[in-house]
Design goal:
Bound molecules: manganese (II) ion
Largest sheet: 6 strands, antiparallel, barrel
Radius of gyration: 25 Å
Distance between the termini: 31 Å
Helix content: 25-40%
Strand order of the largest sheet: 11-12-17-16-15-18
Strand content: 15-25%
Structural class: alpha/beta
Shape: elongated
Length: about 500
């Protein structure tokens, strides 16, 4: 999915020459100890790389220039062990183009009450040194993550781990190529947007292809690869009778396998890690790709249906952030409501394309008519999703800016078996309740398509929005509609004042 072992986060300690060599040696030793400690933590998935203490404007600018051009460096953690006058940081911060996390920590956790003298005080000054550093970043309007606490605590390491994963996702977006197979579903608004603006803001390039580009690969599929993939379907899923060998729709499963192999070859040849399709532009493809898209998502590809390139890119970024974590992440759509006098729920699903990483148990491999698009019946994986905490995230283009909307939800057990519903689905209880959640979502312009994730939390997307410099609206346990409206209005003014060039 992603080569995490090569990636590095650089640990930068700030100081100054005022204190003399002895203190600076101690600063360096302490910083190395912290880096070693962080690298031993299981909460940190990315290697932290120690850098020499920076003490002058030149050293800071040179280091940040190196960080900018180093392919493996995906972010900077900065910490002021002592005071480090912050005008020295202006030149470096002006050129830094990698995400920055300000770790506001201290080498020792507790004050040594019996032995503390003025030397100790002068060595351990982050309490005020980091405030000077914070001022200059605020003065420069620089977005960054601030983590406060002792570096050995689980809480701090967990937060640093989350930020590390987010910068990994951010790094992925800088190289991401999204293939749009066919254009948008005709007349749909929310899946449109400014692809040039998106590339300037997030890094990913989004370009159009035709279904014939995929068909070329489908036609070149080798029989032995089809046989192998059919065997994999048979061992991984419960095949419905008509799809089993000798079944009257076995030919559709063979077609579906060919589409998967061809689509995969198209994506891999072009270096695409995310893609969209649309049922209105299938050309010679016999079925809308169902099981193919589902299994590609499970392998880490981003996907958006009906030309939804923003959701495709966001899904890929979140899959990279969640690499190796428990819980799945899928393309999703708010499909149908379950209103009851006591409580109301959302049934999330799509026509076909739900990722089996969120499946509970072994999926069923089934075939049914689609009802739209006029193609042959598509093969799909059908399953339920487990109960538990999850979130929905939607990235929209407001014309002058991008907005990320997040709703925290609790997945619950469906009220019945749904024996006649031939698509994967998940029932959730949106926070704080459906009334407030859907009112806020609709007022914010959130799409019907989302990324649904059991793996990441809102904090990931908060860090992501700060790195990208985009607006974030969160709908959670504390949301109330009146305050939410005020937030939307305030943001309208804020982004009008501060966001240019989009
Ligand atoms: Mn849709």
């Amino acid at each position: 999915m992603v080569n995490i072992a090569q990636k590095q986060i650089w640990f930068v300690t700030g100081s100054q020459h005022l204190y003399g060599e002895e203190v600076l040696q101690q600063v360096a030793d302490n910083s190395k100890n912290i880096v070693n400690g962080l690298n031993e933590s299981s909460l940190l998935p990315i290697k932290i790389v120690y850098q020499e203490t920076v003490k002058t404007s030149d050293e800071i600018a040179e280091l940040f220039q190196e960080a900018n051009s180093n392919k493996n460096c995906i972010g900077i953690v900065a910490w002021m062990h002592t005071f480090s006058p912050a005008k020295m940081w202006i030149r470096g911060l002006n050129i830094l183009n990698k995400p920055l996390c300000h770790l506001h920590t201290q080498f020792n956790a507790e004050i040594p009450w019996q032995t503390m003298n003025m030397d100790f005080m002068n060595l351990n000054q982050s309490a005020h040194g980091d405030r000077e550093f914070g001022f200059i970043m605020t003065r420069m309007r620089k977005k960054r993550k601030v983590i406060v606490g002792h570096w050995q605590s689980d809480r701090v390491q967990k937060k640093l781990g989350i930020w590390s994963r987010v910068v990994l996702g951010w790094d992925e977006l800088q190289h991401l190529k999204v293939a749009r197979i066919g254009d948008n579903m005709r007349e749909v608004a929310v899946t449109e947007g400014d692809k040039v603006g998106a590339q300037m803001r997030f890094g990913m390039s989004v370009n159009g292809y035709d279904s014939s580009d995929v068909v070329k690969h489908v036609n070149a599929v080798k029989e032995e690869d089809v046989t192998k993939l059919l065997a994999e379907y048979e061992s991984s899923y419960n095949l419905t009778n008509s799809l089993k060998e000798g079944g009257n729709q076995r030919g559709s499963l063979v077609d579906a396998a060919k589409i998967e192999i061809g689509l995969r070859a198209f994506l891999d040849e072009g270096g695409f890690k995310a893609f969209t399709d649309t049922f209105e532009n299938l050309g010679e493809l016999k079925q809308l790709p169902g099981i193919a898209v589902q299994r590609l998502m499970a392998n880490g590809y981003g996907f958006g249906a009906e030309g939804d390139w923003k959701t495709a890119a966001l899904l890929r970024a979140i899959k990279v952030m969640a690499h190796g974590m428990e819980g799945g992440t899928s393309f999703m759509e708010d499909y149908t409501y379950h209103f009851t006098p006591q409580k109301s729920y959302v049934l999330g699903s799509h026509m076909l394309e739900i990722c089996p990483t969120i499946a509970e148990g072994k999926p069923t491999c089934d075939i049914h008519p689609l009802g739209i698009g006029g193609k042959e019946d598509p093969v799909r994986l059908v399953f339920n999703s487990p109960e538990g905490a999850a979130l929905n995230a939607s990235l929209i283009d407001l014309g002058n800016r991008f907005r990320l909307i997040v709703n925290e939800v609790e997945a619950v057990k469906p009220g019945g078996e749904l024996p006649n519903l031939p698509v994967a689905r998940v029932l959730w209880d949106p926070k704080p309740d459906l009334d407030i959640a859907a009112t806020s979502w609709i007022l914010s312009g959130g799409a019907h398509h989302t990324v649904y994730s059991q793996a990441i939390t809102t904090e990931f997307l908060e860090d992501f929005a700060d790195i990208a410099g985009i607006e974030l609206l969160v709908i959670d346990e504390k949301t109330n509609v009146r305050d939410f409206k005020d937030r939307i209005n305030a943001n309208e003014a804020y982004y009008h004042l501060f966001q240019h060039g989009m």
